[in-house]
Amino acid sequence: MRHHRLLVPGAAVACLLLAIPASAADPTPGAPGIGDSYYPTYGNGGYDVSHYDLRLKYQPKTDRLEGTATIVADARQDLSRFNLDFALDVSEVLVGGKKAAFAATGDHELEITPATPLTSGRPFTVVVRYSGTPSKVVASGFTSWLRTPDGGIAANEPESAWWWFPSNDHPLDKATYDVSVAVPDGTQALSNGTLQSTSSKLGWTRYNWRSSKPQATYLATLAVGKFDITTDTTANGLPVINAYSKDLGNNAGAARASVERTAEIVDWESTVFGPYPFDALGGYVPNVPTGYALETQTRPFYSPKGFAKGANTSLVVHELAHQWFGDSVSLKDWRDIWINEGFASYAQWLWSEKEGEGTAQELADYTYASYPADDPFWKVEPGDPGAENQFHDAVYDRGALALQALRNHIGDKDFFAILKGWTAEHRYGNASVKDFVTYAEKVSGKPLASLFDTWLFTPSKPAAAKARAAEVSPDKAPARPKSWQRIQDTHSAHRL
């Protein structure tokens, strides 16, 4: 390539300088939040991450975590400074191979000032070296790191990354991952995706995991402990890895009887929602005192309490449905939580229908009848429930009821075409409640704003006439479907 020197008269130089946009002449800091309506400080502005490479070492006895995170990103503006979301102790930051200034601000912001400003449209790499004891770190009044008798777990919603890797912590910025974890011999380390390799040296075993499809930060998981691990492949050749702590006690059998049906459930859900979007599947049940479950990508997390009443395939159906609704198609803003939870709950209704334990229509009728008009249940709007009600029963039950109302209104052909088409059109991307309404109107050819306003955005029980219009029976209390209680148990597994 030949380089040519440009000679410009002095007056012309002045004119050129005046023509330079302010953003190019004066780099500015990226915003300390991505702009979420519920969590304004979560995520960051000014850049987009494409890949996380995490090289970690964890000692279960002391809960000591050491790490080096290499983050590959693109600048979206001329950046003088940018933030990462993180809560552990940082010893060094490099940007583009050069040492950068850094400071901890707030309770989960790592503010980084590169040696030279970053140029909009260009890729850059950040290296962060860090360490800490995650279970002792409190941010926003809590910790998302769960200790077990033999290790530690990172799994929570809407945040868990702060305790084990620096990130742009919002579903709008999805990325691929390589997670390499060294743990003492005899201990296992689990993460998302496929296991690429293992190696042992000087009493430590290193596990190398890869997530090759875009993944939101809260869906990244790390589990270290002593597990019984089962492996298999699906009919299509996808690897299935399930793991169970060895000290689950009386819940061990029920947990296995549920999670070991993962491949079967995914095969069925694929017939309803379209092809499974990832290259691995499974689940894990560590010995934690919590009661919730979480749809961590390719490998959902389940608390043992989810199986305290026996096998619960309905819970597994819910978390695996999230692989389409929430993981592949992720929300744009946390107020859009219905596009995650309403659909995963409706998957349980469809499973109940398939298993002969109550049709989706019977569950819709029973849901409507179960809550009197003055019940606080109807005050929550699933389409925008508020941060305090993000995991309220209404987001699940009323959220699924809205989908049954849609199904009745447009018919099965269009309804199931919408489920498959929606997951295909927004595969690996982000979407909102409004996007779904628009898509459903396009496929069905019917105006649907009024229907969704009734079932998702009205803070009161839909009147009997509205229920009849949606073919939901308001006139009598139907018998309770056999699956009802198991589905209700799932709600308690989501109160984080």
Automatic annotation (TrEMBL):
Transmembrane segments: none annotated. Residues 467-496 are annotated as: Disordered. Gene3D superfamilies: Neutral Protease Domain 2 (1.10.390.10), tricorn interacting facor f3 domain (2.60.40.1730). Its cofactor is Zn(2+). Keywords: Hydrolase, Metal-binding, Metalloprotease, Protease, Signal, Zinc. Residues 50-219 form the Aminopeptidase N-like N-terminal domain. It catalyses: Release of an N-terminal amino acid, Xaa-|-Yaa- from a peptide, amide or arylamide. Xaa is preferably Ala, but may be most amino acids including Pro (slow action). When a terminal hydrophobic residue is followed by a prolyl residue, the two may be released as an intact Xaa-Pro dipeptide. It comes from the Bacteria. Residues 311-455 form the Peptidase M1 membrane alanine aminopeptidase domain. Its EC number is 3.4.11.2. Residues 1-24 form the signal peptide. Belongs to the peptidase M1 family. This is Aminopeptidase N. It comes from Streptomyces rugosispiralis. The lineage of its organism: Bacteria, Bacillati, Actinomycetota, Actinomycetes, Kitasatosporales.
